[in-house]
Structure prediction request, 362 residues.
Amino acid sequence: MTEVLLAVGTQKGLFLGRSEDRKDWSFTGPHFRMNAVYSVAVDRRDGPVRLLVGADSSHWGPSVWWSDDLGASWQEPPRPAVRFPERTGTSLERVWALHPAGPEAPGVVYAGTQPAALFRSTDRGESFELVDALWEHPQRAEWNAGFGGQGLHTVLTDPRDPDRVTVAVSTGGVYRTEDGGASWRPSNHGIKAEFLPGPDPEFGQCVHKVAADPGDRDRLYLQNHGGVYRSDDGGGSWHPIEDGLPATFGFGITTHPRTPGTAYLFPLDADYARLPAGHRCRIYRTRDGGENWHPLSAGLPEGAHYGVVLRDALCTDDAEPGGVYFGNRNGEVYGSADEGETWSLLTSHLPDVLCVRAAAIG
Prediction:
């Protein structure tokens, strides 16, 4: 059997679940008690499995911790791993994203922050440097803050070329580099932003999350503030894929680890409500690249439900068959070991769930 690790970041700490059959789970925690955990990463490249956690103390501020023994002990550098240089006149508010690159970039880990910036590590997340070209981009001064703050929350690396990186900012939009971060260009053509003038603004969209298709790395899926989109040219252009969805607002979107064209999301009513669409707890899945979406609810609550799933609280593992997981602001975590066909409640009565990450570790 393959053991799966499930990391659940909450408003008041980190909970770690482990299971060999994805039916029976054992959880430990809270780790980082009373810290808000907005970002978690599982790095399975060279050496032991490394867990990276962006923990935010209301007293001590934000920090990045790591563990090489699956959470039995944690390490923190003497000085903050992610910090803005003094020349920027800026201080770190939150680490929204931690993203280990693939085998094509050994040791490289990216961090996305609030205020919106990208940091790069070459030592598996023990220290980071600001990516200056994005921070100094002339459009950055015109980025606004989303409802939850101005955060760089998505980092996607291309396994074919370590110099190709895609990021997303709320509220700034999608930006891409093809030269290792030396230059960046906005990549938002086709994404609507009703709150901005003009039908096709170059940047400023309130992108909530972007996910890459496992079969075609030029195919991306995007959950926007008010729309669901797909790109078939690496973010050069986007078109809506909303047929079959009960609402186009939402936060998270994720893809199957292996099957092309398969993606999952949790739709919410419009931004003025921000509750599950129709007050129903349902994940929607597409198997054809977003041409059609279908609800998945077997095993999920049947009655009225009000648990909101945030942008990083929906994920998949890479076991066989693929597992899907989500947590909500009710403190519930649900999982499926059969690609979303059936669900079970894995744990409940947690603090607000902010992020969920899963990976096969055995």
